Amino acid sequence: MTQKMLEQSRRGFQYVFENYPLYDLYQSGERVHPLLAMHEFLNSEEFLQFAREVTGLPSIAFADSQATKYLPGHFLTEHDDNVAGKQRLAAYVFGFTPEWRADWGGILQFIDRDGHVAEGYVPKFNVLNLFRVPQKHNVSYVTPAATQARYSITGWLRAGDH
Ligand SMILES: O=C(O)CCC(=O)C(=O)O
Ligand SMILES: [Fe+2]
User: Where are its TM segments located (predicted)?
Assistant: First the structure.
């Protein structure tokens, strides 16, 4: 991590993790990478309809997606996912981490009005976290003790056109 990233994480929004932009690649015509099957699944009528019903948000139109990998030292500071013009209605995280300990960090944490951690989700395998935008959350620092990577496919369920 650079000094600039560290300075930014002290005061504002910063993230450090590896990512593979499935949605952007799909939009540019890429069809070969095996993870793109997950992007297609997320945009299937079955999944979108499931998401509309669970969230109570009938205007969900499509899902964008990225694959992410967190290693020791990686994190994502507090934010609420709301970006003007993107029409993000809900956020999802599909966890694909087979083995993890809570004390390794990498926890998806929801922050309440008093600044407390209201809920925390430990990385798991084949588990979906789904929540409405905007809500304050972060991914806690992955400690040097983590012997595995934290893998997920994550993104937003959006209204409007692609
Ligand atoms: O990976 C996670 O658990 C959450 C990711 C996230 O909040 C984001 O990408 O905005
Ligand atoms: Fe987020």
Answer: none
Which residue, 28, 129, 21, 108, is CA-closest to 66? Answer: 21
Distance 114 CA to ligand 2 centre (A): 19
Please report which residue ranges of 34-152 form alpha helices under DSSP H. 36-42, 45-55
- Per-residue pLDDT, 162: 85
Complex ipTM > 0.95: yes
Contact criterion met (CB below 8 Å) for 113 and 142: no
For 15-58, what is each residue's pLDDT tens digit? 999 999 999 999 999 999 999 999 999 999 999 999 999 999 99
Report whether residue 76 contacts ligand 1, using a CB cutoff of 6 Å.
yes
Find out whether 69 and 12 touch, Cβ atoms under 8 Å.
no
Asked if 23 contacts 67 with a C-beta cutoff of 8 angstroms, the reply is no
- Domains in the chain: ranges and CATH: 3-158 (2.60.120.620)
Q: Is 153 in the pocket of ligand 1 (CB under 6 A)?
A: no
pLDDT digits (tens, 9 = 90+) for 109-129: 999 999 999 999 999 999 999
Give the Cα separation of 148 and 97 in Å (integer). 8
